[in-house]
Amino acid sequence: DYVLNNLKKKNMKLEKLIEEVEKTREKFIASCSGLTREESNFKISEDSWSITDIAEHIVRADWGGTNGIWYAADGYKNNTPVWSGENENEGLSIEEIVEKTWLKHQPAPEPAKPQWGGPIEFWLINLKNCSATLSSTYEMLKGLDPEKIIYPHPISGPLNVLQRMEFLRYHMERHMKQIDRKSTRLNSSHV
User: Fold this and answer.
1) CA separation for the pair 153, 125 (Å, rounded)
2) Long-range Cβ pairs for the range 186-191 (8 Å, 24+)
3) Enclosing H/E stretch for 152
4) What is the rounded CA–CA span in Å between residue 66 and residue 21?
């Protein structure tokens, strides 16, 4: 009875985290919507990312993180976990994990870096489509302990499903701040 109640609490927490991810995704999309081609491709410097680059990065990171959850859940269900060992991130929030593992200006892992380009609308459509994948992910995880399904992040190390969901939210919030700064600079250069 205790185990079932504990699992139910974890699944309720997972559902709440997914709702937070979706609200943040909507805000992220809104922060990038309605931009002209010039605005979405504006770069402060040659080696900086444009808002389109950031949107592509968010999609790639979402795909990678969600794929990792599916991969880890499949291993968990088949008694072949993709990660084992002591989890140094156990019990930590994503903010605490990032604080201890990221550099101040942390470069993105290679697979999550923008690579294809294209119009921002393409990336925003793909980001909207990530909602359906996340909903399917929640259904796939039903009955499983989200704290036991662990897939390592390339920078932060082992993250369980709850921490991965926190990461999706945190990551979009982090990049929305960059978009706000870029938009402010862009608007001041048009004055």
Assistant:
1) 25
2) 186/39, 186/42
3) strand 150-153
4) 12
Token couple for 14? 């997972």
CB 150 within 8 A of CB 87: yes
Under 8 Å CB-to-CB from 29, ≥6 apart: which residues? 124, 127, 128
- In 3-state terms, what secondary structure has residue 157? strand
Q: How confident is the model over 87-123, as pLDDT tens digits?
A: 999 999 999 999 999 998 899 999 999 999 999 999 9
Rounded CA-CA distance 169/21 in Å is: 5
Q: What is the pLDDT of residues 42-83, one digit of tens each?
A: 998 888 999 999 999 999 999 999 999 999 999 999 999 999
Task: Quote the tokens at residue 105.
Answer: 């200006």
Count CB atoms within 10 A of the CB of residue 75.
17
